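S.,

Sequence below, as promised.
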Amino acid sequence: MKGTNLGEFEEIVLLTIAALMEEAYSVAICDEIEKVTERKVKLSVVHAVLNRLDEKGYVKSHLGEPTK
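The prediction came back faster than expected:
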């Protein structure tokens, strides 16, 4: 497991995942963070953070089926 220290945005993403639970898809995470923090969030940044959190062992991610 890589270093376990978390940055501020990583913590925000983790808290958002906990709040959204089963609905914690990357787009929903972006939308929720933007709503709560009133800051613009790029989807690519959330994907990068999710990858880092996966590498650190905080989350497990997988690709879902495409939305129709």
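The longest helix spans residues 8-20.

Coffee later?
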